[in-house]
Structure formats: structure tokens, C-alpha cells
Amino acid sequence: MDAAQDHFTFTVGKLDAGMAILLGERAHLIEFPSVLLPPGATTGSIVNIAVHQNLAEEKRRDAEFWSLQDQIMDEFGKKGPEPPELQLRHVTQTSVTLEWPPLQLATAKLRSLVLYRNGERLAPIPSPLTNTSSKLSALALDTEYTFQLVLRTTAGTFPSSILRVRTHTMDNTSGISVCFGTMHDEVLLENAKMALRDMKAKWSDKIQIDTTHFVCTTEKSRSNSPIAPAAEYQRAEQLSIPIVQPHWIFACHTERKLVSIAQYGLGATLPPPASIRTQSQSLPAPSSAAAPPPPPAHPHSDSEGSNSDSDGSDSEAEADVGVPSTVHEKRMSRPGTMNREFKFPTPVSSPVVGEHPANPVVRVVTPSNIEVPPPPVPGDKEGAGKGLSRPSPPRSASGRSEDGDDVGDTEEISLN
């Protein structure tokens, strides 16, 4: 092989399976595709091989390669997905409405868009490519919440900044968002808008995602079509938006707080707005509860009650004694019932001499005034006959004692 020349001389040594073994003059051995050999070359043929560098083709290929790299960089490397910008649209006492601009995904594919509340994952946002708002209800009153959107794509995860929101108190009426329906009274409509403006609330003619109440005086449209209600009224019913009369706005404006809608539904009979405003102002201030009247004094407050105990049990006995007999008969005439306040009257003594017949003095006998004889001692015959039998009170021929009580027939029984 002559290195000074622009070609090299080889001898074909062997042809096998599409490959040729070429032998150089200095025992160089190379494998060469047989398809590149001149036609008719066989084993033992001598061939010359020339090798040249194509610089122009190298430049062309390099330029084509780097042009492709620039296109990839411009399309996929310079612009990527952007984190969503979470914003507050509306807040009330129990709900929060959030919104964000359309998602910027560049060339990445969307995987999910999830909303987090206080660090807890909520349900994914439906139709995230077209939906740019969300309303969260059933929140606590006057409570702070944190919200965050997390965008997941094929190019990575992109969270938004944390948004802090505090729900309103009951006296904050700026969260009212009203949609007006059919209002035949233009003066009433203008007064309602003035009240909303004074409360820093807002209104619209179309139902939006942050609409809190639908206000109208009739469900029909202005054409009074008897076929179907107005379109906005039907939509309010489908979205479960409370439907009230404009008097509810005046009540909130008068009370300076969010009032209940229970008395202001459509169809309810209400006074004119002016009377509603003055009604709360004319209400009297709550005063302290009046003390209950003292119980009537017992007609007998003389020294006869000096034997009563300190717990007042004897005073109750005196009150029961003074109850007419007809009351006791009514209490006892009801079969199957029991009056828990009923008490048996205690025995009374004979009237005091000199008392007025219209107001007799009642002497109450307490258990402490009754003398009970001691029990007999076993084996004592003398004591056995002492205090064992109480003499019966003297009675008349009719079987009544001197006190007037019907004691019936009595009989003495000996214990010996």
C-alpha cells in the first residue's frame, strides 16, 4: 500500500456472505463490503481504494442539525406552563367564590387541577381548561381559611400562591349579591338598589356564580306570559338560589345585618317598605323582668303558729287545711289519677274561745306534740298493762267521738 498516493491497493483474499477480506501490501487486513467491489472482482483480484473527506457535506449536515435543535428549544425549552393565579371574587358569611385566569400550559399536557383548603385536598376542578371559577359553601361564620390551586402537567407540578380569606360576620352586609327579576314597581326597584348601595352590596340582571339571592315580585316575565316563568327565575330555582321579595333588602338595611329569609318568600303578604324600616325602630327596649307578685298572706298569723319547725313544713300544712272540702272531693273523684301536691289534712284542735266564727283560728298539731308511751318491758306484768291499750275517745250513741270524727266501733283487746 503506497501512502504517498491518493489511493490504496488491496488484494481480495476471500469473499464470504457479502463481505470481502482485503489484504494490503504491509499485511493490513480489513473487511470490506463485497457490494462495493468493482463488478467481476473475485478472490485474488487487485483493487485500488481511494478515500476523500467531504467538508461541504459535513457543514451542511451540521447546519441542519443545529437548526433542528433551535426549533426544539424555541418550542419546548423557552416557554413552559405557568402557575395559576388564584384570586378572591366574592365572600359571604358561609361561602367563598374563587377565580383564576385561563391556564397557560404551553406545549405540556394537563393532568389535573386541584383546589386545596387549609392544606386538605378537595375535589378536582371540573373542565379545568374552560372553567375559571369555583364556589365553596357551608363554611363557618367569621373564620379564616387558606386556599391554593395545584396544577399538574406532563412538564411538572405548578402550585399557586396561598390565598387567605376570612368569612363575614352577621353584621357585614357587603357580601349580598342580588339578581333582580321581574319588578313591576320601578320606585320599589330604585329604593332596593339604593339600599344595596348603602350596604356596599352589589346587584346584576343576570345570575352569576356569586349570586346569593334572587329578588322579584312575581315569577312571570314582563310580558305576563302564562305559559312558563321567566328564564332567570327558572335558573334560580335550578341552582337553589333563595328567592325573596325586595322587602328583605329593606329589612337587612334597617337591621344593619343579614336577616332570615323565612318571612320574605315570594307570595308572602308584607307591609310596605317604609313601615318595615320604622318597625324595628319603634320596638321598645327590652326591660328587666317584673318581679312576681308576693304570695297571699295566710289569714291567720297569730301566735298559734309558734310551734312550727324552721323548715316551713307547718306552713304547708296550714295551707292544706284551709283548702275547701270540694277541692278534695274533686281530687278524689278522678279515678286512676294522682295529684302529687295532695296532702292529708292534719288533725286540728277545738276552736279557741273568743275567736270570730267567720275566721276560726286553726291549731295545727305537729308530731312533736304527741306523746307516745314507751314499749313494755318483757316479763313485767305491771308494765304490760300500762300504755298498751289507748283508751278510746268518748263517743256518742251514733258512733262519733266528741271531736266529730267517725271512728266506728272500738273494742279493747287484752294482751295477757
Automatic annotation (TrEMBL):
Residues 403-416 have a biased composition (Acidic residues). This is Chitin biosynthesis protein. Residues 272-343, 364-416 are annotated as: Disordered. GO terms for molecular function: protein dimerization activity. GO terms for cellular component: exomer complex; trans-Golgi network. It comes from the Eukaryota. InterPro entries: BRCT_dom, BRCT_dom_sf, Chs5_N, CHS_Export/Cell_Fusion_Reg, Fn3_2, FN3_dom, FN3_sf, Ig-like_fold. One of its GO terms (biological process) is Golgi to plasma membrane transport. Residues 80-172 form the Fibronectin type-III domain. Residues 168-266 form the BRCT domain. Pfam families: BRCT, CHS5_N, fn3_2.
